[in-house]
Amino acid sequence: MAISFRLLVLLVASLLLNACAAYRNYDLELAQTNAQLISGNVDGALYLLERNNPWDDKDLLYYFEKGEVLRTRGDLADSQIAWRSADRIVFQWEETVRSGTVKFLSRLGTELGTMIINDKLRRYEGYDYEKVMLTTQMALNQLAMNDFDGARADIKKTHEREALIARLRETEYERLEAQAKAQGIAVRYKDLQGYPVTTLDAPQVIELKNGYQSAFSHYLAGFTYEALGERDLAAPGYRQAIELRPNMPFLEQALRNLDKPSGKADESEVLIIVQSGLAPARSSVRVPFPVRLNDNLVIVSTVSFPVMVPDTSTAAFNTITVDGRKQTLTSLNSITDMSLRTLRDDMPGIIQRAAFRANLDAIRQAEDNKRDPAHASLVSTRVDPFEEADTRTWRTLPDTTLVARMRLKKGEHRLSLPNAPGMAPIRVRIDQNHQVVSLRALGNQVFISDAAVWSPSKGETETVSSLK
User: Fold this and answer.
1) Residue 344 maps to which CATH number?
2) Quick one: CA torsion of 224, 453, 80, 61, rounded to 10 degrees?
């Protein structure tokens, strides 16, 4: 006996865990959370995050966001706890990929759900660049506490994760291409009328080798290995960064300096890291999608596709002032570009699933036309409230990562950023042979959660209390 369409939808929904959570307005939730961050109210951002995640079984995005909010507040230990939970979830995904085993009913329900309803029914496993940036941010937490050995462990995990993703995506794209060919789907994202194609074809997006490897992550690996005295491992890190961002003097200089002798005992090799802005949001746009049912009949359905909406909370800058002197900052990472490249690479699969839904819609419209010829239409007249692109993504992740490297005398130094001209300089103490100082710029706020922050002695003017 045939299963009705509605019964099939109910069957799909019953196979999904947290199905109601899949329909939450994540874009709106995180817009409100990030508004608190931008205003400097980190506690308010944390409150909203907890309020919007009341269930016991927290998902990957919750741990992504919580770790970053806690890091912004300066709670490095709690930030690591949240990110370790996220890392365990990603590790489970890795184990599934390695073994090639997926529970049949779960996979069947998810695939049917995404084909018939939308991509929001897919289990959120994190985008590739998010998985890589997770361990990169975890390493930054360790370096903020001068724990280079701990950072080394997270950096090693980053390299292993990249290698696994590379193997998986190579086979995944081949599979999708074969499926599309077998189903006769020839539509490309460039064929979607009304879709912002130029964003996916921007030069800085196309120039990326892929959507998950970060020159910053590999440069950070090189610096960490160099600090630990492992120059034979530092060199590959710098070389990989150069391969990802060629013709960049800052990266090339780091590789050349490996052959130079160590600096003076009273000096430190300091890497200043400034992470600016927020990762872009994902939004949903509906575009017409023509479906050919036979040689003479083409019915236009309307389906949803994701688009990236860049963050504009923080004005761009490329300098930092150190002890009253301006130093150039070099941009090594853009989450906006990585997310656009990821979307560009994912579009064949997104189109394939959208085409299936559009085909179902066109068939229903054709049946309605037969039943009521007087009101027949070649454009689908149904309004599907569930037709919406998946807008989930790690929103609190910093967008741009800029770096400056210099040798400084050990002792106290003052830093200031141009996005917060009215804020007193940040005082940091440099006391290691190699040291990392991390700043976060949001709007006209600067946050620092670093062991190097110098608290003034009694009687001196407090300059750092507003930074946390």
Assistant:
1) 1.25.40.10
2) -100
pLDDT at residue 451, rounded to an integer: 61
Q: Does residue 269 lie within any of the structural domains?
A: yes
> How many domains are contained in the chain?
1
Q: How far apart are the two ends of the chain, measured CA to CA in Å?
A: 64
Residue 466 lies in a domain: no
Say if residues 223 and 234 touch (Cβ distance below 8 Å).
yes
Q: What proportion of the chain, given as a percentage, has pLDDT over 70?
A: 84
Neighbours of 370 (CB within 10 A): 9
Residue type, 251: L
Q: Which residue has the higher pLDDT, 44 or 106?
A: 44
Distance CA 336, CA 398 (A): 10
What's CA 413's distance to the chain center, in Å?
32
Alpha carbons 211 and 200: distance in angstroms, whole number: 12
Across 277-393, where does the E strand assignment appear?
281-292, 298-309, 319-322, 325-328, 330-334
Using CA atoms, how far apart are residues 386 and 378, in angstroms rounded to an integer? 22
425 within a domain of the structure (yes/no): no
pLDDT band at 284 (very low <50, low <70, confident <90, very high): very high
